[in-house]
Write a structure and sequence with these properties.
mainly alpha
Length: 234
């Protein structure tokens, strides 16, 4: 009973923070349509940030839609519109970080840096694959997909650490989004495990903590980004 009450409380907190993150993300997206803002994001960098913000906003909207379908509309189905938001958001974030890494590698990288990224990213991805398929047993098919996408996102986003000196004014924003992705990855792994064993327990609570951190850090990143954008006369 205590854990059930705790689960409901955490679910509510996650949705509130996710809604805040989604709102902040949408506000930032509106700023991208001001022509003069493109002076800050040259060429491909403009689209990298645009799709990054879109991706994390879709993640947050997915959480809100999940709450609405499960709690408000009492839909017990595991698969729903939230999976469309989460999948689309994850893919946009992944493409954005891969593109950013490619640009940074071309401009500032070398073979040693490339090998380091491939090594650490590869080890992380293999570890996540081993955990996901080692646990198995989940009836929720997307429970396998999300940890893998999250692992690929974190692996590609390692360039935020390796190339931090070249990220300019938005280094802090990218670092916060990188940390948010780590939180979501941890949440995805623990959620997959709890789904497989069918027990919420302490690991389920820990999963919610990581999701809360992920959406919370996304929200903070969007706030920081908004402040930097407002400092630019557009």
């Amino acid at each position: 009973m205590v854990l059930d009450a705790l689960s409901d409380m955490m679910f509510g907190l996650i949705v509130i923070v996710a809604a805040l993150a989604a709102g902040a993300g949408i506000i930032n997206l509106g700023s991208f349509f001001h022509n003069k803002l493109k002076d800050l994001f040259n060429d491909v960098n403009y689209f990298i940030f645009f799709f990054l913000v879109t991706g994390y906003s879709l993640y947050a909207l997915g959480e809100v839609s999940y709450y609405l379908t499960q709690v408000i509309f009492k839909n017990a189905s595991q698969i729903g519109i939230q999976d469309l938001y989460w999948t689309a958001g994850g893919l946009l974030i992944l493409i954005s970080f891969i593109t950013m890494t490619n640009v940074l590698m071309k401009e500032h990288g070398n073979s040693s840096m490339l090998m380091k990224q491939l090594l650490y990213g590869g080890l992380l991805t293999v570890l996540v694959l081993a955990i996901v398929f080692g646990v198995g047993g989940s009836n929720y098919s997307f429970g396998y997909v999300y940890p893998i996408i999250s692992a690929l996102i974190v692996s590609s986003a390692l360039s935020v650490i390796f190339f931090s000196r070249y990220l300019g004014d938005f280094e802090q924003v990218l670092f916060l989004l990188f940390l948010a992705s780590i939180g979501i990855l941890a949440g995805d792994l623990l959620f997959h495990y709890t789904e497989a064993i069918g027990i919420y327990g302490f690991l389920g609570f820990l999963s919610d903590i990581f999701y809360l951190l992920g959406y919370g850090l996304s929200f903070v990143a969007f706030i920081v980004m908004r402040l930097k954008i407002k400092a630019i006369k557009v």
